[in-house]
Design goal:
One of its GO terms (molecular function) is 2 iron, 2 sulfur cluster binding. Keywords: 2Fe-2S, Electron transport, Iron, Iron-sulfur, Metal-binding, Transport. Pfam families: Fer2. Belongs to the 2Fe2S plant-type ferredoxin family. With 109 residues, this protein is of the alpha+beta class. It has one domain: Ubiquitin-like (UB roll) (Roll), CATH 3.10.20.30. It is built from three helices and seven strands, in the order ββαββαβββα. The chain has a five-stranded mixed sheet. Strands 4-6 form a two-stranded antiparallel ribbon. The mean pLDDT is 91.
């Protein structure tokens, strides 16, 4: 099992496109901040949806397994999780991942 996974955070409108390694025991948000990224967040406990991102699936030109452990979170419904939404404040990657950032509005609608 890998000790870290490659994560890419992308959002064309926000001018974000950064790829970095996330260690097993670290949240995606924590590592992104260590990389100098400024992303939206609030609770850091998975109980709000401020930090929501969405998995960019294969077929849009990205190689992405997209598996995470976000079992500590409660802000997203099972349906939203199945649609690829992720709370990066508590999510730990289980594979290499590509996400589009700033998706809170989509889960609130």
């Amino acid at each position: 099992m890998a000790s870290s996974y490659q994560v890419r955070l992308y959002n064309q409108a926000e001018g974000i496109d950064k790829t970095f390694e996330v260690p097993d025991a670290t949240s995606i948000l924590e590592t992104a901040e260590e990389q100098g990224m400024e992303l939206p967040y609030s609770c850091r406990q998975g109980i709000c949806s401020t930090c929501t991102v969405k998995t960019i699936l294969q077929g849009r030109g990205y190689a992405n397994e997209g598996e995470v452990d976000q079992s500590e979170g409660s802000a997203l419904s099972e349906e939203q999780i199945a649609q690829g939404y992720v709370l990066i404040c508590i999510a730990h990657p289980l594979s290499n991942c590509v996400f589009e950032t700033h998706k809170e509005v989509e889960v609130l609608n």
